[in-house]
């Protein structure tokens, strides 16, 4: 998979995307013709850059763009409110692309750079976080947001999504040395972040050799600003992730369940254990619940995520 776009893009259109795609196709990919080559292009910036400067669709296999939820507002509620817009952006990209595969890469909590900047990048003052870093990265808040984002990407029809980085304060786990600014970015050296467990829950349903063996099912919430769900099915296995998007405890009734389910909850009472010893946390047997008329009630603490396996 090759993702190709110009190093410098023009917000108002006119980015040299077509020239870059042509150059890569003629000069670079030609070296690899004996291997299958899958070429994607679009923008390394927000969706609006794709709208204003489409790549040459007849020369590519997929369209790509990046995404973050903090362009205009930054508070917790506003970040959660972007989830519906994520699905709409992916669906719009599919229409623009002539129904080609849409790749969203990467999705980050904060913008990675300022595409509108006209001068040099400001130096981050000592003791402050760089503008690309969000202090909420190692929090339950981001884990709950990730559940909603994954659901939105699937419902919008994304072919693939890349989230965050692997390690460090924009990643899934902290480095052994810990946070460079511990007074502003509170993390545990060498520990995973809660988002690690969300991606691990989804990764356990990876399709393997048969790409059609895994499905994302529709999970309907009657209050999408407070509760979001992500439903997965692979052959005879089903899993539902239910996330509390609010800073208050929410009482949730989950319907459409079998007679018995296994439940594991990631919340403030156990999150430190889950971060320090992720393998031990994930090896715990899920607590068995007997449902009533295919339903079960859960009380989810702020930004908690429940993993429900059908049994």
Number of strands: 13
**What is the fold-level CATH name, i.e. the topology of the largest domain?**
TIM Barrel
Counting H and I runs of at least 4 residues, what is the number of helices? 8
The side-by-side strand order for the widest beta sheet comes to 6-7-8-13-10-11
Helical content band:
10-25%
Could you give the distance between the termini?
A: 37 Å
CATH architecture of the largest domain: Alpha-Beta Barrel
CATH superfamily label of the largest domain: Glycosidases
User: What is the molecular shape?
Assistant: globular
The main pleated sheet reads as: 6 strands, antiparallel
CATH class of the largest domain: Alpha Beta
Mean pLDDT: 93
Verbal overview:
This protein has helices at residues 17-28, 47-52, 76-81, 83-96, 140-156, 194-203, 271-276, 278-283; strands at 2-4, 39-42, 62-67, 101-107, 160-163, 214-217, 227-234, 237-244, 250-254, 260-266, 287-290, 296-300, 305-310. It is an alpha/beta fold and 311 residues long. The chain has two domains: 2-115 and 130-203, Alpha-Beta Barrel (TIM Barrel), CATH 3.20.20.80; 214-310, Golgi alpha-mannosidase II (Immunoglobulin-like). The longest helix is centred in the middle third of the chain and has 17 residues, at 140-156. The mean pLDDT is 93.
SSE arrangement:
Layout: E1 2-4, H1 17-28, E2 39-42, H2 47-52, E3 62-67, H3 76-81, H4 83-96, E4 101-107, H5 140-156, E5 160-163, H6 194-203, E6 214-217, E7 227-234, E8 237-244, E9 250-254, E10 260-266, H7 271-276, H8 278-283, E11 287-290, E12 296-300, E13 305-310
Parallel strand pairs: 1-2, 2-3, 3-4, 4-5
Antiparallel strand pairs: 6-7, 7-8, 8-13, 9-12, 10-11, 10-13
């Amino acid at each position: 998979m090759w993702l190709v776009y110009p190093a410098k893009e023009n917000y108002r259109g006119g980015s040299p995307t077509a020239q870059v795609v042509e150059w890569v196709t003629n000069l670079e990919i030609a070296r690899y013709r004996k291997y299958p080559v899958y070429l994607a292009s679009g923008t390394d910036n927000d969706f609006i850059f794709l709208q204003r400067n489409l790549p040459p669709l007849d020369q590519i296999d997929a369209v790509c763009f990046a995404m973050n939820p903090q362009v205009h507002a930054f508070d917790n509620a506003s970040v959660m409110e972007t989830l519906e817009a994520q699905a709409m952006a992916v669906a719009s990209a599919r229409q623009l692309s002539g129904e080609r595969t849409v790749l969203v890469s990467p999705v980050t909590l904060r913008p990675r750079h300022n595409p509108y900047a006209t001068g040099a990048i400001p130096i981050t003052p000592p003791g402050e976080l760089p503008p690309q870093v969000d202090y909420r990265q190692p929090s339950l808040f981001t884990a709950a947001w990730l559940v909603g984002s994954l659901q939105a990407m699937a419902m919008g029809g994304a072919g693939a999504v890349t989230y965050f980085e692997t390690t460090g304060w924009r990643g899934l786990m902290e480095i052994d040395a810990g946070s460079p600014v511990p007074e502003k970015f509170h993390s545990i050296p060498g520990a995973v972040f809660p988002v690690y467990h969300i991606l691990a829950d989804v990764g356990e349903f990876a399709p393997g050799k048969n790409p059609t063996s895994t499905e994302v099912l529709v999970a309907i919430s009657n209050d999408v600003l407070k509760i979001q769900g992500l439903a997965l099915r692979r052959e005879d296995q089903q899993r539902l992730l239910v996330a509390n998007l609010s800073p208050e405890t929410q009482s949730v009734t989950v319907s459409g369940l079998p007679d018995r389910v296994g439940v594991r909850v990631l919340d403030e009472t156990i999150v430190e254990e889950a971060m320090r010893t992720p393998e031990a946390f994930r090896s715990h047997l899920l607590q068995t619940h007997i449902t009533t008329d295919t339903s079960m009630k859960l009380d989810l603490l702020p930004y908690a995520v429940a993993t429900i396996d059908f049994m």
